[in-house]
Amino acid sequence: MDAIILQILNGLDKGSAYALIALGLTLIFGTLGVVNFAHGALFMIGAFVAVTMQKLLGLSFEQIDESKTDFLGNPLKVEVPYVESWFGPDVGAALIDWSVPLAILFAIPVMLVIGFVMERGLIKHFYKRPHADQILVTFGLAIVLQELVKHFYGANPIQTPAPDAFIGSFDFGAMIGFDPNVIIYPYWRLVYFLFAALVIGAVFAFLQFTTFGMVVRAGMADRETVGLLGINIDRRFTIMFGIAAAVAGIAGVMYAPILSPNYHMGMDFLVLSFVVVVVGGMGSLPGAVAAGFLLGILQSFASMNEVKSLIPGIDQVIIYLVAIIILLTRPRGLMGRAGVMED
To answer: What is the pTM of this model?
Structure first.
């Protein structure tokens, strides 16, 4: 039982990332009808916003510290972060420590701008084109963004630690009645799951309970009729593209302490997340979220040594096997609607 609970927790961790990326993919496809293969690159850019924030807050200058001397008694030069000189050592150290959560404040406007530029500068020219053309052009854009990140940040993963308050593990088993130290789980992974649940809930609440969201949902169902009512639905869909980009970006920011950012992480997550979207049903937001968590949990169980000893390599293909089975039995996915990608 303890192994099962641990694998469920691992699955929720992976599923949170899949669900957030798939949610943005589905928002873009549901509103604009575009299959955006550059969406994984937005997740990667978000992770590197966290890296950039950490580097900026860590910028320092040399200062002579009279309290420290070398073996000859000469005072030593020490590196002092600018934020500590501006805000004091305590506040400055706290800002550096919490650089990842603080990066969200910068990631949101950055990703909104990137989303607007992508949609207005490139994506809008492919609304009427076949999905194959959309996939090719957005996949090419993803490669360009990937190579730009590689040029400026290098090819090696960059460690981006979580705040000190969340370093370490939580004794989850003791909380639910197991023996101590049986089910230990990292604090930050639990934080990521809660963060993902909050973001997903906020997106659904925005679409369900706001006037803007209701108009967007109406436009997703019947774009022409909404346009005839005098509503500029194209502008609202552009804003939704920016929101989808922001969701992917902040998902990448918070995932940086879990997986050290590298230039190809977006492509790694994109393929899996696109499978999640197809399994959940193209254009179905609840389907994308449900499939993300479902496939994350299945992948986690498939990674157990007991399972891999019986079926070697199953952890690498389980998601695709499940996708094949579901699409053979339910061609529209778990919650897909009629007419989507059937033309």
So the answer is: 0.87
pLDDT in tens, 159-187: 999 999 898 887 776 676 676 777 788 88
Q: Which two tokens stand for residue 249?
A: 């970006």
Supply the pLDDT for residue 54.
92
Q: How far is CA 320 from CA 52, 183, 275, 295, 302, in A?
A: 35, 29, 7, 10, 12
CA distances from 152 to 104, 166, 333 (A): 21, 29, 40
Distances (CA, A) of 66 to 60, 76, 82: 18, 7, 19
Tokens of 201: 């809930």
Q: Which domains does the chain have, with CATH numbers?
A: 2-54+99-329 (1.10.3470)
Average pLDDT over residues 87-107: 91
Neighbours of 195 (CB within 10 A): 20
Cα-based distances in Å from 200 to 41, 93, 196, 275, 343: 20, 32, 6, 19, 30
Q: State the Rg of the chain over Cα.
A: 23
- The alpha carbon of 131 is separated from its chain's Cα centroid by a whole number of angstroms, namely 24
Tokens of 339: 């007419």
